[in-house]
Amino acid sequence: MIHEFAHKLDMLRDGANGAPPIHPDMRPGEWHDIFSAAWNRLKNDLHTHQPLPIDGYSLTNLAEFFAVCSETFFEAPKNMKEHMPEVYRLLCQFYRQQP
Ligand SMILES: [Zn+2]
């Protein structure tokens, strides 16, 4: 359910592309840079057969990446904070909570 809800939020701006509308006090450039870096790191982990910190389905596309990150943020926050601290920090700002 969290996953589908994240897609709905993502679709509020320019369709589902992993770039939902963010709060005015958040920087779009930072969102892009951090999510891109995390995406690239995960793809590299996949190609080098490293264990992935989140479900590999996230690498389907950037919309799924945002949805799976959101799901992990709420369901396994410790895991996300440990392995993807920058994404965790941005999602704390985005969802206005610190699970
Ligand atoms: Zn999805």
List the helices and strands and how they pair.
Elements lengths: L1 H9 L17 H20 L14 H14 L1 H7 L1 H11 L4
Helix pairs in contact: 1-3, 3-4, 4-5
Question: Can you give me a brief rundown of this structure?
Answer:
The chain has 99 residues and is mainly α. 62% of the residues lie in helices and 0% in strands.
Question: Which tags fit this structure?
Answer:
globular, mainly alpha, Collagenase (Catalytic Domain), 99 residues, 0% strand
What does this structure look like?
The chain is an all-alpha fold and 99 residues long. It has a single domain, classed as Collagenase (Catalytic Domain) (3-Layer(aba) Sandwich), CATH 3.40.390. Helix 1 crosses helix 3 and helix 4 packs across helix 5. It starts with a helix and ends with a helix. The mean pLDDT is 96. The structure holds zinc ion. The site of zinc ion (ZN) has 4 residues, from helix 1 and helix 3.
